[in-house]
Design goal:
SoxY, nine-stranded mixed beta sheet, 18% helix, globular, six-stranded antiparallel beta sheet, Quinoprotein dehydrogenase-associated SoxYZ-like carrier, 15 strands, alpha+beta, 286 residues, Ig-like_fold, Immunoglobulin-like, SoxZ_dom, disordered N terminus
């Protein structure tokens, strides 16, 4: 198991402690101090203290055009920040093995690690994340030969990890695990060259830092932490995630179809619930 996977596992165990961190922040002004540190002159101090925990002493290169990331400079909703990641196929003709998404100042900085199957064809990937304070959002790609390349963008946001849930908890439980898949033909895709899929999963993805509006007690952490998307038995991508993926996880990505096998999705949350669904491949969308 990779170092980043270990961090994600430890993240799950530390989410209760993260709730205590929020209480300390409310008393001591932790969030405002973090914002003051980064608002006018973004600093790499947090990242410099974090990166060895995630990647040990492995060298991390500048992206050199291999990978790019986009997010709003100022988020409209800190709990639903869109993030778009692109891989340049000319720089990585064999694709990449994995991408680790990190939000420096979040209580659990490793938002997710995405691992891609051989010949998956993924060169564009987007999702939505929580951003707890002004922070760099980083994408670190691992190439097939084990090299690491990093890109980053700075996002101004506040309180994304503790923002109230969009739905009430009863409604969230009633629809939890429901999935929807949209298929886009190459001509309708973002790059105009390869078909895309958009996967939407109903799940509260509680961070452990949100409060119940009636009791004001912290809602226990409860989120999807493992996900796999397959075409038949062939992996397109898998994910191990923490508390930073937004409520009702949403992923859009291009891919390389192989045959006519259906698209299959399996997910597991931190309570051990398992969800799965599948859809026939819409050949008209290829």
């Amino acid at each position: 198991m990779s170092d980043s996977s270990h961090i994600v596992r430890r993240t799950t165990l530390r989410n209760t402690a993260a709730a205590l961190l929020l209480a300390v922040a409310a008393i001591g002004g932790f969030a405002s101090l973090t914002r003051a540190e980064t608002a006018d002159a973004p600093s790499n101090e947090t990242w410099n203290s974090l990166k060895t925990d995630v990647f040990a002493n492995r060298p991390i290169k500048d992206n050199e055009g291999l990978i790019s990331i986009e997010a709003p400079r100022r988020a409209q909703d800190a709990a639903l920040v869109p993030v778009d990641i692109r891989i340049d196929p000319a720089k990585a003709p064999n694709g990449v093995k994995a991408i680790t998404l990190i939000i420096d100042v979040n209580p659990s900085p490793v938002a997710a690690t995405f691992k891609f199957g051989d010949n998956s064809g993924v060169t564009h990937f987007s999702t939505r994340v929580r951003v707890n304070d002004y922070s760099f959002v980083r994408a670190i790609a691992e190439t097939q030969d084990g090299q690491l390349y990093m890109t980053e963008t700075f996002v101004k946001a506040s309180g994304g990890c503790s923002a109230p849930a969009v739905k009430n908890q009863d409604e969230a439980k009633a629809t939890m695990g429901q999935m929807k898949l949209r298929q886009f033909a190459a001509k309708d895709s973002i790059d105009g060259r390869s078909p895309e899929l958009q996967l939407m999963i109903r799940h509260p993805n509680n961070s452990g830092l949100q409060r119940d509006p009636q009791t004001q007690l912290f809602i226990p952490p409860h989120f999807i932490h493992e996900l796999s998307v397959m075409q038949g038995d062939r992996k397109i991508f898998s994910m191990e995630s923490g508390i930073s993926i937004s409520e009702d996880p949403n992923f859009r990505f291009n891919y390389h179809p192989d045959g006519k096998n259906p698209i299959r999705v399996e997910a597991t949350d931190t309570d051990g619930n398992k969800f799965q669904d599948q859809w026939p491949l819409e050949t008209a969308k290829l």
